[in-house]
Amino acid sequence: MENYIIPLHKTFWGKEEEKAAIQALRSGTGVGDLSFSEELAKLLKKFLAVKYALPTASGTASLELASAILLKRGHEVIMPSFTFSSCANAVLLMGAKPVFADIDITTYNIDPNDIERKITKKTRAIMIVHYAGMACDMEKIMEIAKNNNLYVIEDAAHALGAKYSSGYLGTTGTVGCFSFHGTKNAASGEGGAFVTNDNNLFKTAEIIREKGTNRSSFMRGERKKYSWVKVGRSLILSDILSAIALEQIKKLDEITRLRRKNAQYFLKKLKKLSSKIILPQVPKGTDPNWHIFAIRVPRLMRDNVIKELRNYGIEASFHYLPLHQSQMGKKLGYQRKDLPVSEEVASTIIRLPMHPKLKKSEIDYIAEVLGKIL
Questions:
Q1: Per the residue annotation, which of 97, 163, 184, 269 is the catalytic one?
Q2: Global pTM value
Q3: Does domain 252-373 have CATH number 3.30.450.20?
């Protein structure tokens, strides 16, 4: 791995996380659903103002849990192609079919108009992704879901701490899925969370998450013994990682504040290049967490700009190859040019360094280098 002067990501860990991890190591066996996992679930419920939260092994695990609860073989799920493979995998593992929709050219989020075009009698759910911590058009999406009796799975892996209207992203849909991956705003290395306000979904979720057993209710003292009651998976989060995630959630307001501060300074410094690059645009009535700060440049320039930034010690990167253009996408029957906006964004986007520890002097340097390159 190359060592860059300015890395793309940097965790906001300190002595608190180190102390919590050591305490978890000394007080238990590291398995899930011990005291730190319980505290993490409580804090997530309070922070997000949701009724139920379950720590999971990853954001991917949360998506698989959501799909296991809501989907059956033959169902279709509309989702963006401009996302990570975990979204499609979660659906395919249930014998359901991912149906890719195009994205909005401004927010890079799923286009509600294309959602409507893709609905069939087999459609069971809409899986949305709040790309970079920018909110999808939740008002329109929830209206479409209501009118067509569809579930909404919010992939909020990028969006912990971001807001839409007065609520947090990940809490408006049927279920919300978060990630604590080492690159995310709140990071425990690996980890995630599943949230919902539906009691029946929660009860099913905690059974599937715990290998298909009713062990969770046994641990709460609600039964004398537990047993296998449903087909399940092992999706719980180690208490050691829960301890780290717990400290990260305690710091989340500060993490988000620093990211927003850095994003505003980035926008100010790069404004002079606005005739050469496309800057991020914040949808009205939303408050992003700036998980990613992405610009776009002409397609023919993109790869060279990334190369030059890296030559100057700045870790810049492209992002997703749209799923419909992948080998698996082709097996599902998709072709190049099926989703033109997704393809345009994917071939022009550049992710710049963004994390709470980013310094103004580093942003100045990035802006200066971009000015030279462009």
A1: 184
A2: 0.96
A3: no
